[in-house]
Amino acid sequence: MEATTSNEFGFCRDGKVYIKAFLNFPEREIGFVRNTEQEALQYFVNRFELAKKKVADLSSEVKEVQNKGSFLTKVVQMKAYLAEFDGLGDFKPLFDELERIEEFLRSLIQQNQVKNLEIKRALIEDAKQAAHGEDVLLATEQLVEIKSKWVKTGPVDRQYQDELTDTFQAILEAFFLRRRVYFEEKNRIIDEKIAKLQGFIDGVHQLRKAPDIDDSVGKVKDLQREWKTVLGLPPKKQSMLWKNFKKANDMFFEKYNRIKGIEVKPRIDPRVQELVAMTQELESKLSDQVNMPAIADKAKAYLVKWKEITAQMKSLDRSLAERFRTICDKIFEMNYLLRVISYRHPALNDKPRIEQLKIMINQMDYMTKKERSELESFIAQAEQDRQMEEKPIQSKINTQKRKISMKEILLTGFKTELDQLLNA
Length: 424
What we know:
Layout: E1 5-6, E2 10-13, E3 16-19, E4 28-32, H1 37-64, H2 72-83, H3 92-131, H4 136-152, H5 158-209, H6 213-227, H7 235-260, H8 270-285, H9 292-310, H10 318-342, H11 353-384, H12 391-422
Antiparallel strand pairs: 1-2, 2-3, 3-4
């Protein structure tokens, strides 16, 4: 039965809709007539707009994206999609556009592959040079960087791909084999040095038990001189062994001095003595309420001096450092408290001690609660803003916590003193 209704691109026959042959595609059925043949044809004419939009969108994407080569597959898939698309319209311009894009992309890919081939050949030469470097650690860093560039470089023509990959991989494998041998030898040497130093430690312990202590002294000093010649150990291991060696020497000379009746006075670093004196002086002045502003100024000056002295020292007793920091914090908090109180009670120091304590307790309790509430609000806001891991935020929180802690310590001291006076 012949077509009863048709247009330039299709027709209806026996209740079905057909697309006419075009390009190298034969005539084929694309749908059914549901109401009228004219409506059926118009439906597929309208549907053709979808195909036009898809091609236009793809063309626009190719123009805008940086990595254009990745769109070649999409273009090929779009051509297959159009070949089976159920719609009525002029498909030829769409296929022409896709052919143009495909030709452009294949040319671009070919150019990129030539460029990538040059880059990968250059990277192979760089890898060869780095792999033969004497500094294994430096060579490792260089090869890791070269490998990263290799991975980021796009593909080359298939005829070169396997050869290039095999060559590059062979260079890496040969180097890392040499690297493994290098570190195995290095670890062997380190193990030998560790065993040697451990032997020195054991030797000092044995000499401590020897019957001739005078003869042993010379041998211990020989071991001390030999110890200085053994270098190149990891710092932590070297430090641990040195502590054990020093301990063995201390035990040996303690016995030697005991046998010889020698009294050894421990040497105290004069810088440490000065730090202790500064700390003790500030601790003794915390109760001098009348002169607290001058004491706070002295604490500030001592803070500067403390930093100057400790900058010249390799190590410092943590307990002494914490003790100094605590007394400075207490003085600063005490000075701040008295300054705040002075606005309402300028003659605080003329009042009886019990009244002074009550005023100080009330004011310190108020300030502590206020600062704790502000800190809790600050933390809540930081958590909401996801800033808790940021160093400035953590630093501010820790500083405020310490200030509040010092206030609470002083407040407890005031309450204890007041209880003692009231119960006296």
